[in-house]
Every structure is written in C-alpha cells, then in structure tokens.
Automatic annotation (TrEMBL):
It comes from Sphingomonas oligophenolica. Gene3D superfamilies: 6.10.30.10. Pfam families: OB_ChsH2_C, zf-ChsH2. Residues 60-124 form the ChsH2 C-terminal OB-fold domain. This is OB-fold domain-containing protein. Transmembrane segments: none annotated. Residues 23-57 form the ChsH2 rubredoxin-like zinc ribbon domain. InterPro entries: ChsH2_C (IPR002878), ChsH2_Znr (IPR022002), NA-bd_OB-fold (IPR012340), Thioester_dehydratase-like (IPR052513). It comes from the Bacteria.
Length: 139
C-alpha cells in the first residue's frame, strides 16, 4: 500500500512568461498557438523564435478547436503515481486545423481502442487541480 500523502500531485504547467498567454487562454476556454509574423509558420510548443525561420517575436493566435488524430497510445499502467487514478487513458499527438501539432489526451471516446488515424476531433477544456487543460474528444 502506498500512503496517499506520498503520491505526487498533478504536474504543474509551465508558468513562465513565455507560456502565460497559453494558460490564460485555456482558463478562458480557448486554445492558442504561435504564428511567426515573418514567414507565417504556425507552431507549438511556444518558443521565443520561429522554428522555421528563427525570427523572434511570434504572436499568439486563437485556434478554432478542430483537429485530427495523428498518433496515440492507450495507457493501461500509469507511468507516474499521479496518473494511477485515470488508467486507462489516451495520450495523443493531434494536428490542429491551423497546422500545429500538440501532445494531449483524447477523452470522451467510448472505446479508446476504436480510435482511428485522421479521425476528426474537437477541443474540450477540462479543469484539473485548478488548471484548465486542453484535451480533445471525437468530433
Ligand atoms: Zn518564421
């Protein structure tokens, strides 16, 4: 038996100034990504410079919330004690309609084993330990 007090909490998000607009947006029920003001490249995760042309100062832009499933794995054993209570759960790479790819969870799928590559997804912001976490559901 593991004492409950020994179980670490949900990992806290990166609250650095670079990421603050991202978490502020999810707190308002929205998802944002970065777009380069020089070459137009849309990307995540947040960076100080465009990963395509290295120009500084990319701007945040609101995502529509539509995406498609690129890859995923269904966890049946928790990799960390903080996740023990949620198995089985699905971790995935999704591609936003605007182009950026992000790592997230697929929730609300009646049968996670029935997910399909390229499947349409919709954004769902879920509250967890006071954090608004962007996840996706089958569209
Ligand atoms: Zn660029």
């Amino acid at each position: 038996m593991t004492d409950a007090a020994e179980i670490p909490g949900f990992p806290a998000p990166d609250d650095s100034p670079l990421w603050k607009p991202f978490w502020d947006a999810t707190g308002e029920g929205q998802l944002v990504f970065m777009r380069c003001t020089r070459c137009g490249n849309a990307f995540l995760p947040a960076r100080e410079e465009c990963p395509n042309c290295l120009s500084p100062g990319p701007q945040w832009e609101r995502a529509s919330g539509g995406a498609r499933l690129i890859s995923w794995v269904v966890y049946h054993r928790a990799p960390d004690a903080a996740f023990q209570g949620r198995v089985p759960y699905t971790a995935a790479i999704v591609e936003l309609d605007e182009g950026p790819r992000m790592i997230t969870n697929i929730v609300g799928a009646q049968d996670p084993e029935a997910l399909q590559i390229e499947q349409r997804l919709s954004l769902r912001i879920e509250q967890e330990d006071g954090v608004a976490v962007p996840r996706f559901v089958p569209a």
